[in-house]
Design goal:
By secondary structure, the protein is an all-alpha fold. It has a single domain, classed as MFS general substrate transporter like domains (Growth Hormone, Chain: A). The chain is built from 20 helices and no strands. The protein has helices spanning 2-15, 19-33, 44-51, 55-58, 60-79, 81-84, 87-108, 112-126, 130-139, 146-170, 175-196, 215-218, 223-252, 259-285, 287-304, 313-329, 331-341, 347-376, 378-381, 387-410. Helix 10 (146-170) runs antiparallel to helix 17 (331-341), helix 13 (223-252) packs antiparallel against helix 17 (331-341) and helix 13 runs antiparallel to helix 20. The protein starts with a helix and ends with a helix.
């Protein structure tokens, strides 16, 4: 019976062994596995009412996941796990463990004291899902198509992150039901990863590389990776704070009756469209130009957000959709660029280190936005995010000039 099951698994893996099919499967794992990321954030209003906690305290339901992700990513980086362990197995195990943490939260937790450690552990295990998925995607995508391939993968991340909002918005589920559904999605993602996903030929290297715990620091000594990373950090300064606090901004601006579905449309659907457009533009017009354009648009949305605060609903929807598309459109571009300028032996480590530092920054802005909102009101709160896209656009512009200079020198 066991041998027959192994034969079925091998046959299924071989039938899905084409690059396009593998990239689709990896994207599916991302959608399903990352559904647990914002599962608690999507039910914060219900948790605040049930547990009698303040808005400031509820921030830790998201911030603890980000901190856990950073801790997990740092550990993975130091051990070079993404380059030294079979990637599909690492992703499957981590998705399953993240699902287990979310399932325990849904079934047994009754307050922040036990919720925050579980959310922290969820973040730790998600560090073995998202960056590893990026490496797997790159392994099945040649450089000429890698921009769009990463755009699809980041679109899957976006859709998975927004999935709890859809679950909450479409049905009258209690918060435990929403989180249980998210945990079930992650379990399904783990099954897909372990049975059907495999690593592609682009980063094939035979035996695993030797441990290099300092590579994450060494790559900052090179101008190309350094500029790409700085641009990514500016992007992350804005991204997760917007995703976390967009519902609160909409509620404060009197769009509360539609907040769940509007958040899913802006973060999920518009975000996926933005990822695909950004990935296509990166392959068509170049990585720097695509990223700078997205950063300029999202930065402009930050600047004008006070003007849209109490605007008519159709105008608010327009801002939310444009911002939701632009704020994530460049994410895959940074991953693509880093995979092309980093040491090929340690691409997984480079991507994991990049996300570790980027997600550490998100904890700062997630914490500061509601503090600013308490001081000056939600109308002006997103002005805190403006420096991120400004710094990102400047760094990515410099990266583009550096690449052009090297192309001329090597001609």
């Amino acid at each position: 019976m066991v041998d027959r099951w192994r034969l079925i698994v091998v046959e299924n893996a071989m039938s899905f062994g084409k690059p396009g099919a593998q990239r689709a499967l990896i994207a599916a794992v991302q959608v399903l596995g990352l559904a647990v990321w914002f599962s608690a954030s999507a039910v914060v209003p219900a948790l605040r009412a049930s547990w009698h906690i303040s808005e400031t305290a509820s921030v830790w339901l998201t911030a603890s996941v980000q901190l856990g992700f950073v801790a997990g990513a740092i550990t993975s980086t130091a051990l070079n796990l993404a380059d030294r362990v079979r990637a599909h197995l690492l992703m499957a195990v981590c998705a399953l463990l993240a699902a287990a943490c979310t399932g325990v939260f849904a079934l047994a937790v009754d307050g922040l004291a036990s919720a925050i450690p579980l959310r922290f552990l969820t973040g730790v295990f998600l560090a073995g899902v998202y960056p590893v998925g990026m490496k797997l995607t790159g392994s099945w995508a040649p450089p000429a198509r890698r921009g769009l391939a990463f755009g699809v993968m980041i679109g899957a991340l976006t859709l998975g992150s927004a999935l709890p909002h859809l679950i909450s918005g479409l049905g009258d589920l209690p918060w435990r039901g929403v989180m249980s559904a998210a945990a079930g999605c992650a379990v399904l993602g783990a099954l897909v990863a372990v049975t059907l996903v495999r690593e592609g030929p682009q980063f094939a290297q035979g035996t695993p590389p030797k441990p290099h715990p300092r590579y994450a620091l060494a790559m900052f000594g090179q101008r190309g990776p350094r500029l790409v990373n700085v641009a990514y950090f500016g992007h992350m300064w804005e991204l997760y704070a917007l995703w976390t606090w967009l519902p609160s901004y909409l509620i404060a601006g009197h769009a509360g009756a539609h907040v769940d579905l509007l958040s899913f449309i802006a973060i999920g659907l518009a975000g996926v469209a933005g990822c695909l457009a950004g990935g296509w533009a990166a392959d068509r017009f170049g990585r720097p130009r695509a990223a700078v354009t997205a950063l300029v648009v999202s930065g402009a949305c930050c600047v004008v957000s006070p003007l849209f605060f109490t605007a008519p609903m159709n105008v608010v929807v327009l801002l939310a959709v444009v911002w939701g598309a632009a704020v994530i459109a460049d994410s895959g571009v940074f991953s693509t660029s880093l995979s092309e300028v980093a040491d090929k032996r340690y691409v997984g480590t480079a991507l994991t280190a990049q996300t570790a530092i980027g997600f550490a920054l998100t904890v700062v802005t997630i914490q500061l936005v509601p503090v600013l909102a308490d001081a000056v009101g939600w109308r002006w709160a997103f002005w805190l995010l403006v420096p991120g896209p400004v710094v990102g656009a400047l760094a990515m512009g410099a990266f583009g000039r550096e690449r052009a200079r090297l192309a001329v020198a090597n001609a």
